[in-house]
Specification:
single chain; 1005 residues; alpha+beta; 18-stranded antiparallel sheet; five-stranded mixed sheet; 16 helices; 42% strand; elongated; disordered N terminus
Amino acid sequence: MRNFTSFIAVVFVLIFGSIELKAQGSQWISENHRIQYQKFAWKYVGSSNFEVYYLDKNEALAKSTLAYLESDFVRVTELISYSPVQKIKLFIYPNHETWLQSNGGISLANAKEVEQENLSKFRIEIAFKENLASFKQELTKQVASIYLHDLLYGGSVKDVLQSSLLLNVSDWYVQGMAAYIARGDSPEMRRFTYQIISENKIRKLPLAKGKEAELLGQSIWAYIATTYGKQSIGNILNLTRIIRSEQSSISSTIRKPFSKFLKDWFDYYLNDAKQLEVNSLKVFSTEEYTTSAPTMNSYRLSPDGLHEVWVSDESGRYSVHFHTLGAKKSQIILQSGLKDVNRISEGKGPLVSWYGKNSLAVLFSDQGYTWYQSFTMEKSGKLKGDDKKKIANLSYLDMKMAANGTKMLVRIMEKGQVDVGIYDLKRNRLNPVTKDAFDETEAHWLPDNRILYLTDRYIDSLPAPAAPFTSAFIWNPDEPENPSRLFSTSGKVFNFQFRSDSVAYFLQAQNTGNRLIRFQWSDSTFQQMAVRSVAWENFEIGPAGISSKESNILSDKIARYTWASLDELTNSSWIPTIIDPVILHAVEPVNAESTDLAKKTRRARLERQQSIRLKREPGKLVGPLDYENTFVMNSSEGQFRSDPIRGLGYGYELKANDLLENHLFKAGAFLTANLRNTDIWGEYSYLANKLDWTFRYDRKVLGQDTESESQKIRFNRFALTATYPFNLLSRLSVTGMYSTNRLFSQLSLTNPEDYSGYAGTSVNYVFDNTVSAGENLRTGFRFSLLAEAHKEVVNTGDFVRLGLDARYYKKLSNSFYFATRLSASHQMGSQTQASMLGGMENWLFNKQETRTQESPLGLANLAQRDVFMSNFIAPLRGFALNKLSGNSHLLLNMELRLPVKSLMAIESSSVLNSVQLVGFTDIGTAWSGSSPFAKTNGFNTNVYGGKTNPFQATVTDFRNPFLMGYGFGARATVFGYFVKFDYAFGLENKEVKSPVTYLTLGYDF
């Protein structure tokens, strides 16, 4: 091969220099991938309302989950006055690291699409974390989200279509309702409302997103339940489905204008805030430290109080930060995990603990194993890491090191329950401390090698207390089977810290937030500290005072308080109290307008629906059974598409996969109006291992007629691709392919058939860390580089194609996004395929440039044989398709995007919410030869005359090789299509051309 040496050099650079090109088109084809470190063996158990899928050895967790969900089913459905018929499928993972290896939602573009797909398919993926209580809350929250989605948008196909077009509720409405169903009037929500009200930082309801929207909505629903009764919630939800307005449904139910309702809601929590300020004191911190990361996990202070560590989470990529008090910057000493920007990640990450004088231990997961690594303090004040050590691969929830560094006090989740144990690092063996079904939430070393742990265990002689409930027990190694109870109380107690052998501090979650409690070991007395610790999430005790990790609205910071400022407070006594659940239920607020008859009627309706479902499914409990690869239709989508060669047509795509999405099937077809031009393609992907395999087949047909000729071109391609992910942001793909092009006359059998066959290979590298910020909006950077080589096996010839596509997206403000793209390609060889520049992709009623020189589209409406191996380069607005063509191209696109929704104070219809305004500039050129400025560059030479004309002239000019387009446009989602309208001016050789309008389908670059 003439350019074989050049091709080998390019491949070498690609492999070792780390750079893919997915396509020269502006529509980036996202292909997510995951990394599997272990094989999964799934089983499931089922009931009348749920199917719980679990990994081997987690049967107990699956059964307890199923029992909890069934017991909570009536409460949830009664609260929302709705009972769905379809079962929910839950996939439970023993820890967050295992969940990150799953292929759930891999065929979808981003986390938002995955969330919507799971809601519509009644599917939940959840990882166990922290403790059983928080796990159950998260279960209820996700189940409630599915039921609310079904209530508001479900039903017949007609109902779903009408709801999606006319009903668009705000995030606070649904997310807040799901959070209220799961957690009720929680201390976290009270803390948040106290902060936003006391600091006057209340965002307009439609503009709140994410965690802010959830907590804001939770506070509103909690206020409605307290003031107007819980039966009002179901009435509001069902009325919203009918009148398709969240504000009107609330106003109609409570018979009060929505503005007046918000004013009452504000006053209700304002009174709580004032009461809290009366009963506590604001103690000013001596220092506050805010990190660049919005959240901090596993915060720990060194024994001498001079150093601290914490863990940050960046979409599943964890970093352990080390900071010396007084320094401005922190140091990252360890990283683990996989960054996945297309999934919502809320893992805890590595576990950290100080021991000895100033030694640090880190427990983390990496590549499917659990590792232990210790760090020692150098004289320079930096931490130096020792060699990491592989330990037993258990689901660790928490870790505290012994003073000598030889043992770890750990909490683990195993066989469906959380227990405390002592892990011996020398023997690599776990010795259990507890082995019961109760939920242990914390464990701490005592100075005499005894262990204090917190659990929801209660005394057998007493009735079961109201949840949440906490008991503190002391475990003695001399009497391991007989732990002694220190105290028990209703509510959540956490974050035990020891100031000395006789004084300890902990936090108790109260309705107004977390309160600091001091415990005297000598006389077993408690004092509630008057300090306003509402924002404290956890704290660490040092010689100089307390360092508290505080949540300031939605960001974390560290605040430091001296012992002098805390000890001088006038505190009140605190007595552990056990609340009888019967009494708790008796004092629950009930709206005076509600009647027993209405409650009985609603409960009777729900029970009737439940009985109908049970008649359909007489077997109440199923399993455990082995998981079978049951294939389901993931989605089917049909849409109009404009092909640059064959014009307007209709394309249809089908997707199918198993429940775990290890096997993906895709198939599609495209048909034009004349029924002669078609596309057929199919694809199968196997994704169960780290190396992913994909086989794809494409067939394209083009029929073309003139007054004297009728031709048909058939293109076929078989391709096998192996993809190796370096991490979740970058991957290397190697593809082997065989392509055929067949051109033949349909009028004359004597004309010889023109046939070509290309054997080819390509090497791609892709890096993509972009994050979807909304429809047609992204932030981040992505680039790809391609090197492919094709060799003619039927005739003679070959070509090598190199390509680059780099894109950068930047959020300039809450209203403006800037997107830029650089695209380039170059070809070498005797059978190079042209790149055609101009116009836009998927341009309805497109126009092609009339060319006098040779082009893949031909000169007499008869395209060349290998036209399907050419590339259309877009967008270059202001010009028609195929304005320039050549073996090489260079294109720069810049867009300023303004989502109109960001300027609106209230939610509107889905169409208006999707409207975007853009301003754009496109600059590009295409040429053949060494340079676009060369004398013969492929586009400045035109041939006039010839054929029937006896005169022929070749004219070469020296115009500017670069074309420029600029203008403005609008985008919106209409009937499920993302429609773009652009009005562009073209600048060619310093001459402004007449404006061109574009009506296109699909997203921008």
